[in-house]
Structure formats: C-alpha cells, structure tokens
C-alpha cells in the first residue's frame, strides 16, 4: 500500500491476529546484569544493533479502511523507548526483589503505545539477587515476530564475553536414539498410514479443542473471563542443563520431552498439595486438563544470523501448536496396588515424549498453521484472533521452550548473569516459558495472581525435578551434583 509517498508493508496474518482488541500478546524478556547498567551505553547498542535487525523495529502499525494492518516506517528516537523506574536508595536486596517482581508484573499488563514502534526497554538499576546489580527488561509486541525472531533480535544486541567477534552458539537439537537400524519398506508403509491417521485425528481434535471443547475448572484453571487483563505473578526456577540431559538420555527423548514431563508432574504435585491443604479430593484425577505446546514451524535447527533470517524469510511469526492431554496420577503410571497411590515420576516424561512424537510425526502441526492462514484470507484477522484466543482460553496451560546461548554474554560491556522470558496477554491462569543459557535452564511461571499459589507451585516443580532425577539416576544423585546456580 502506498501512502504519503511511502510503501507500507502488510502485517502477516499471524501477526495481525495477535494485535487486535481481542488478543494482544507481548514477549517480555529479562537480562540480569552483573554490574550497574549504564543507560547511555544501552541506548547506543539499541540504536546500532536492534534497529538494524528488521524494519519493524522502526515502524508503527496503521489500519486501513478495511481493517487490515500495515507497517509504516517512522523516525525512531531510542531514548523514547528507554524507561528507567526510580525507587528509594539503600533498601535491602529482598525489598528491591519485591519491587522488581511488582514492576515486572505491572508493565507486563500495560499496553505498548500505538504511536511509536511496538517495543521498549526498562532499566531496573537495583540488586535483585547475588551477582545481579541491575536488570534489563525487553518488552516487545508479538506482532514484531515470534519467540524465535524476538529472542534472535535480543541476542543480536548481545555478544560473547570471551570473544565478541565470534558468533553465539546454541545447544544442538535432537533426541537420544536407542537404535540406528534403517526402516524396512514395510515399516515405512506402516509409518505413512500411521502418520496419515495421526494427522487427521490430531488436527480434528485440535480444532474441537479450539472451538467447542473446554477444560474443566481446577486448581490450575480458574475459568475467569478476560484473564489477559488480570495481574499475574512471575516466578523463575533454574535447573542444571546437564541434569536435564541425563534424564533425557535415560528416557531416550529430548530436552523438550523432559521439560514438558516436568511441568506435568509438578502440576500434578501442586494439585495434590492444594487438595491436601483444603481437605479436598485432588483435581489431578478425573478432570479434563489440556496443555497447549507452542512450536516453531521453521525447518531449521538453532538460530540464524540476521542476514540468513531475512534472506531465507525466517523472520516473523512462524508458529503453530499441539494439544497435549495432561496426565493425571491415574493414567501416568500410578500403582493401583499402592495404598498411597504413588505415581512413577518418569512416566510423565514418557507420556509427554510419546504424545509429542506422535504429533511431530504428523501433519497436524502444519495443518493448524495452514488453517490460520486460510481463515485469515476468508474471514479476516479478527476471526483468526478470536480462534487463537479461544485456543488459549480453552486449555489449562501453555508451554513454550527455546534454546539460548551456551556462552556467557555481554551487552554494551555489561556481563549477563541470566536471561529468561515470558509472554503477557494470554487468557490463561498458567503459562510456562523455558530458556536455556550457559549450562542452566530457567523455567518461568506466569500465574494468575490470587488464584495460583506461585510459591507452592515453584516448590512442587523443584520437588518434581528432584524425584524425576533420582528416579532416572538413582537415589541421592541430585545431592552429588552441582546446583544450577
């Protein structure tokens, strides 16, 4: 579209559907600095690195008479996008941590100004943990790109601490394979038939889940309308990536299998703990509970250079999703002869592995993505937005997992202790996001404030991993390992 002698670029259908009055999502990333943050240095890096990533970082969204959205290039004043909150000096680290958590929760709910490009950076220049003197909060609208694109943009501002001229490296993708035997023709034929059936069944169930099926109200799903506008608690837990990989090797799966299984088992323990507190029957058994696992549909492993992302059309929102039934104690390996009805922790991972593999080997992931594009071309972005909103709202939780750099990073000469992200604007009581960095994996829980006990849930996640690791590697194995921090 031409206007004011300027060529406007259209938003992709997937970007338009998450930038509407129905659904508006933001990616919020936190980089923890080991030294006090120099705002002028950070502004210089944003000007020199972030703005060159993609024209969208220097564009605003305009809407035409037909309701379609376009990117309009504008002049960017970086200083207008840098926000520095002010708090009293001389407070304790614990108090500053409380201020940070409250501030992070608040800005996650705030709407980005529409009159300027859809991103900003907040500099919280106070200590929140040991070796963390300040935190950078990157707030970027999901319309700019998906997690792969946004985190790639942030990583473009970060350099390797040991040698800034070298590129960042990322963990290798893939699962542990127990056999290297080639498939026979018969097995391949069986795989084709199975894949076709899995594709049809998975796609049909996904459409039903997004439209007419809805999870039950449980201790992890309040069913409160308009949850995207409610405040949330944001809690982080870190695990050793080496320990995660040991479990991965034991079950013959992937890191993602272990993460999803851990989330399922931790949620199961939380349901039991809440039931015990309130003298109720645990809602972990018999209730309908579904997780929405978000997937990157690019046929690539790891991040690419900015040039590659632009040249190969990898930038943007290339995502889809699969629905996974959250196993309960009754269908995840419980011992019916055990009077305490104990469950096998590894069974949650094995269940997740089996279901994810079945969906990965089907076309349902790509059919879901194609359906969104078709719906957008026929009914417009508002209809797609409503569909994605109901897809999120009808499930009990969402899980998104990304791989981060293996080396220590710096931004404008500021050493980064840790980096993690979450997503705001989701109409759910519970959201898990995961990012690995420098040998550790940070699990972020975004929980409905006043409904989910975030401290209890965090404790259950830690207990879940301890039981999973000891089940996989032997009793006391965790005590012999180096902690994540």
TrEMBL record:
GO biological process terms held by the UniProt record: triglyceride biosynthetic process
Reactions catalysed: an acyl-CoA + a 1,2-diacyl-sn-glycerol = a triacyl-sn-glycerol + CoA; a long chain fatty alcohol + a fatty acyl-CoA = a long-chain alcohol wax ester + CoA
Membrane topology of the entry: Single-pass membrane protein
Taxonomic source organism: Papaver somniferum
Signal peptide: none
Record GO cellular component, one term: plasma membrane
InterPro entries: O-acyltransferase_WSD1-like, O-acyltransferase_WSD1_C, O-acyltransferase_WSD1_N, PTB/PI_dom
Family per record: In the N-terminal section; belongs to the long-chain O-acyltransferase family.
PANTHER family: O-ACYLTRANSFERASE (WSD1-LIKE) FAMILY PROTEIN, O-ACYLTRANSFERASE WSD1-LIKE ISOFORM X1
Record has Lipoprotein as a keyword: no
Compartments in which it is found: Cell membrane; Endoplasmic reticulum membrane
A Pfam family per the record: WS_DGAT_C
Pathway: Lipid metabolism; Glycerolipid metabolism; triacylglycerol biosynthesis
Molecular function GO labels: diacylglycerol O-acyltransferase activity; long-chain-alcohol O-fatty-acyltransferase activity
The keyword Amino-acid biosynthesis is annotated on this UniProt entry: no
Record domain PID: where: 408-470
PROSITE patterns tied to this protein: PID (PS01179)
Keyword entries, A-Z: Acyltransferase, Endoplasmic reticulum, Transferase
Name recorded for this polypeptide: PID domain-containing protein
């Amino acid at each position: 579209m031409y206007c004011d002698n300027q060529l406007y670029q259209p938003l992709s259908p997937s970007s338009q559907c998450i930038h509407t009055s129905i659904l508006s999502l933001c990616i919020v990333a936190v980089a923890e600095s080991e030294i006090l943050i120099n705002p002028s240095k950070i502004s210089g890096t944003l000007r020199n690195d972030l703005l060159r990533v993609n024209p969208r970082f220097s564009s605003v969204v305009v809407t035409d008479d037909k309701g379609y959205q376009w990117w309009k290039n504008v002049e960017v004043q970086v200083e207008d996008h840098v926000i520095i909150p002010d708090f009293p000096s001389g407070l304790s680290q614990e108090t500053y941590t409380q201020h940070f958590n409250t501030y992070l929760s608040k800005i996650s709910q705030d709407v980005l100004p529409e009159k300027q490009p859809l991103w900003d950076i907040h500099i919280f220049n106070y200590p929140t943990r040991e070796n963390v003197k300040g935190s950078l909060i990157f707030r970027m609208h999901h319309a700019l790109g998906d997690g792969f694109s946004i985190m790639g943009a942030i990583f473009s501002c970060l350099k390797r601490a040991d040698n800034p001229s070298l590129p960042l490296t990322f963990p290798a993708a893939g699962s542990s394979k127990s056999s290297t035997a080639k498939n026979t023709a018969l097995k391949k034929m069986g795989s084709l038939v199975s894949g076709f059936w899995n594709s049809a069944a998975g796609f049909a169930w996904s459409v039903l889940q997004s439209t007419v099926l809805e999870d039950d109200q449980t201790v992890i799903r309040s069913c409160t309308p308009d949850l995207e506008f409610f405040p949330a608690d944001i809690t982080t837990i870190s695990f050793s990536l080496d320990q995660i990989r040991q479990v991965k090797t034991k079950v013959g799966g992937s890191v993602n299998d272990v993460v999803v299984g851990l989330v399922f088992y931790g949620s199961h323990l939380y349901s039991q703990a809440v039931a015990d507190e309130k003298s109720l029957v645990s809602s972990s058994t018999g209730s309908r509970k579904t997780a929405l696992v978000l997937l990157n549909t690019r046929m690539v492993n790891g991040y690419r250079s900015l040039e590659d992302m632009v040249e190969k059309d990898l930038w943007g929102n290339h995502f889809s999703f699969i629905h996974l039934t959250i196993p309960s104690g009754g269908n995840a390996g419980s011992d019916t002869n055990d009077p305490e009805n104990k469950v096998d922790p590894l069974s949650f991972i094995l269940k997740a592995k089996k279901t994810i593999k079945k969906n990965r080997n089907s076309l349902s992931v790509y059919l879901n993505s194609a359906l969104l594009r078709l719906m957008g071309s026929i009914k417009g972005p508002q209809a797609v937005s409503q569909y994605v909103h109901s897809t999120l709202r009808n499930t009990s939780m969402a899980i998104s997992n990304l791989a981060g750099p293996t080396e220590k990073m710096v931004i404008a000469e500021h050493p980064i202790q840790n980096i993690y992200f979450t997503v705001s604007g989701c109409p759910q009581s519970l959201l898990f996001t995961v990012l690995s960095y420098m040998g550790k994996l940070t699990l972020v829980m975004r929980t409905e404030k006043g409904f989910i006990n975030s401290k209890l849930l965090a404790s259950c996640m830690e207990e879940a991993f301890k039981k999973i690791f000891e089940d996989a590697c032997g009793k006391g194995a965790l005590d012999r390992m180096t902690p994540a921090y």
